[in-house]
Structures are given as C-alpha cells and as structure tokens.
Design brief:
single chain, alpha/beta, eight-stranded mixed β-sheet, 13 helices, five-stranded parallel β-sheet
C-alpha cells in the first residue's frame, strides 16, 4: 500500500514537490484554495513547465492524486508539507498571512502521529514562533503527538541541469525526533539529505543562499553601469574573469531581478535583524541598485534613440517573465520596465511565448506577434528576457534599433543597430 502525503499549496514549489512524491509511488493529497488552478489539475493539465501534464493526468486517473480545497481531506496523510506563499507587504515587511491561514485551517484536522513540515521561505524563528503555537492550539504536543520540521525549498524553475530531486535537501526539526522524521521522509525522494541542528539554522540557510545571489547580482549590475561609463564590455570582462578556476563565481547583469525568492528573502532577513536593532548595509544597498536597473535601461534607451523623451515612440519589449524559458512573471523587472515606458508616454507592446496577457497596475495588455512587420515598425526592440524561442535572427534583420539587456545577440549579425547593456558605448550593426 502506497504511503500518503499531503501538500498544502500547489504553486511553483508545491506542484513539483507533489510530482516528485508521485514518482516515488506515494499517494498525494493536494490542497489549494485557487479553484481555477484546481480545475486545471483535475483535467490533467499542469500550469508549470517543469511538471509534465502526463504526470498529473495519470495520477488523477489512477486516484493517486486527490485534489481539494477542504482541509479535512488531510486526515489520511502521514505527513503534511506546507508550501504557501510568503511575500512582502507594500512596506517590504514579511507577510505571513498565507502561512497563518493554512496553519489555522490545518490544526482542526490534525491527528496523532502526523509530521508537518514547512518549506516556505521565511525568517529565522518562524517555525517555532509562528507555526508551532498555531498547531499546538489543537491540543496536540509537538515531539510527542505531532512532529514539526522545516526544509527550505530549492526549486529553480526551468533548470534542466539540476532536477528537483537531485538538489541536496536541507532538513531540520523542532525536536530531535521531529528532525529524524523529517529526514526520513525526504530521504525517500531526494538523492541527498542534509540534517542541520535547528529550524532556525535551516531557515537562515535559505536566506543566505538567496541573499548571496541578491548581493552579487546587484554588484554585477552596478559593475555593468560602470563599464558603460568606461566604454568597456562587461560581458567580455566576466568571461575573462571566469577563466580563473578558483575564488570567482560568475554573475551576469540584466534589467533588474525577479522571481519568488531573490527579491523577497533578503528583506525577510533585514526585517528580522531590524527587530533586534541591527541592519544590513549590503541588503539596503543591493535593493536600491537592483530597483534602479529598469530606470537605467530606460535612460540608455533614450540615449541610443537620441531623445529626451520616449513619448509617442513605439517600443517592442521581448520577454516579460523574470527568467528565460519559464512562464513566471512574479517580481519581473520587465514588468517594471513596461510600466516606466508607459508612464513616459511610449507606445509599448510586448511578445513572450509563455505569457499571453498582462495586467500592469490595471493596464491590460495582450501579447503581440513577433512578426517582421512589428520589428520594422518599432523605434526600439528591447530584449528583456532571453527565451530560447525568441526569433533573434529576424529581430536583428528587420529592426532599426535593438537594446539587448541580456547579451543574447552576442556573435550574431544583422542590419539593426544593437546596444548591449553593460557593453560600453560600442554599437553593432
């Protein structure tokens, strides 16, 4: 008889995790309050690139994947994993409302012996200070009746080199028994499991990973601006520096940052340290630099067009997701760039093979076709996200001006004048 696991939150973390457990012959109970998402899954359709439709369709037809918005469906599960969003408020402080809501709904249906693990990224102390007290209101005692652990998600959408279950899994527990049970659960699915001493340590591990990327991305973005000023190509510099076999990790510039982790997690750490009267100058500075990049792209575009204003000019933005080859616009710097262009009075259109429509602060947009005629009509074509599906050869052949924020056109030739972010004052074409 298959083991039963439940996953609360079937988004970019929860659904790939559900697929991983299904592949190991678990029966999975999926809980999500988004009815549109649940209807799609019940039809056997996945909304995440990394999870093929076939896995969902087969599991639903076989009765191995149960989908519900009713938390009472969790009763049969031996283990329950919480994968709900942990965003920031408008004031850039942690928003744990999804976690609190899930815990309050869950506690009324807990039973003796169940393991509950949290995977949502959060600040150190959340598992013990927020999740544990809410669950213990059920009357069940942690470490005796129920078991609570934390294991930070390490999902990297679109990463074909490192599939989910090949990425080492960090685990922890509120008590030693909680940690042991969490470790044993994940060992059945992940190739390598690393147990750390406390849930605080595991929570901080996730913040270190993403703050490291946050700070280094901001540095290379600032470095790209400096290279522009010094008329040096940052991409050539990075490639040359990458030849050093030790002491260097390559990061690449772009029009900003995005996603569900990197723009958010460092602020969770900053908020936690501020509660203790401390602060992180690195996080403050990095945040300021990364937020400034869409405006910098805008200024370089004006310079390339020889215009003080973009009012009335036709700007075609290619790629609006936060990273290439994924259908995820959360925190995308391309969205902010479109907003700034529209505010300038530019006539903005976009193409993205993964995103058919956008809503940018109430402004509805439909994706345009990536046609030769649209490239010719545009005053400037901006490569904001370098999806593999972009017809770059046609872009270079039919556009007048291309602003390449990702160095996607390196080594390519065409009739268009090409400006590359961080490429100095040099032009191609």
């Amino acid at each position: 008889m298959n083991k039963i696991i439940a996953i609360i939150g079937l988004g970019y973390v929860g659904l790939p995790l559900a697929a991983a457990f299904l592949n190991k012959k678990y029966n999975v109970i999926g809980i999500d309050l988004d009815e549109e998402k649940m209807r799609s899954l019940r039809r056997g359709r996945s909304y995440i690139f990394d999870v093929p439709d076939e896995i969902i369709k087969s599991a639903v037809e076989q009765g191995r994947l149960t989908l519900s918005s009713d938390f009472s469906a969790l009763k049969p599960a031996e283990s329950i994993i919480i994968c709900v969003p942990t965003p920031l408020t408008k004031e850039h402080v942690p928003d744990l409302s999804y976690l609190v809501d899930a815990a309050e709904r869950l506690r009324d249906h807990l039973r003796d012996g169940q393991l509950v693990t949290l995977e949502s990224s959060t600040y150190p102390g959340t598992t013990k200070e927020v999740l544990l007290p809410l669950l213990e209101k059920s009357g069940l005692k942690t470490g005796k009746d129920i078991f609570i652990g934390f294991s930070p998600e390490r999902v990297d959408p679109g990463n074909e080199e490192f599939p989910l279950t090949s990425i080492p899994k960090v685990v922890s527990g509120v008590t030693e028994e909680c940690a042991h049970r969490t470790e044993q659960l994940y060992k059945t699915v992940f190739s390598k499991v690393i147990k750390v001493s406390s849930t605080d340590t595991a929570e901080m591990t996730k913040l270190l990973e993403n703050t490291f990327r946050f700070v280094n991305i901001s540095f290379i973005n600032e470095f790209a601006v400096l290279c522009d000023k010094l008329n040096i190509n940052v991409w050539e510099v990075v490639e040359a520096a990458s030849s050093k076999p030790f002491g260097y990790t390559a990061f690449y510039p772009g029009p900003g940052i995005g996603g569900h982790c990197i723009p958010v997690d460092p602020h969770y750490l900053q908020w936690k340290t501020q509660q203790m009267g401390l602060t992180s100058s690195f996080i403050e500075l990095s945040s300021r630099i990364n937020r400034s990049m869409p405006a910098y792209v805008l200024s370089r575009m004006k310079e390339a067009l020889g215009q003080k204003s973009l009012k009335g000019l036709r700007i075609f933005v290619l790629g609006v997701t936060f990273k290439k080859n994924v259908a995820d616009i959360r925190g995308s710097s391309s969205i902010e760039l479109i907003r700034l262009l529209s505010k300038e009075g530019a006539d903005v259109l976009y193409y993205d093979p993964h995103i058919a429509e956008l809503d940018i602060h109430g402004m509805a947009m439909q994706a345009s076709k990536a046609s030769n005629s649209e490239f010719r009509r545009a005053d400037c074509v901006v490569i904001a996200t370098d999806h593999r599906e972009l017809p770059l050869d046609r872009v270079l052949e039919h556009s007048r001006l291309v602003f390449d924020t990702r160095n996607a056109t390196a080594g390519m030739a065409g009739k268009a004048k090409v400006i590359v972010l961080g490429g100095g004052r040099m032009e191609r074409g």
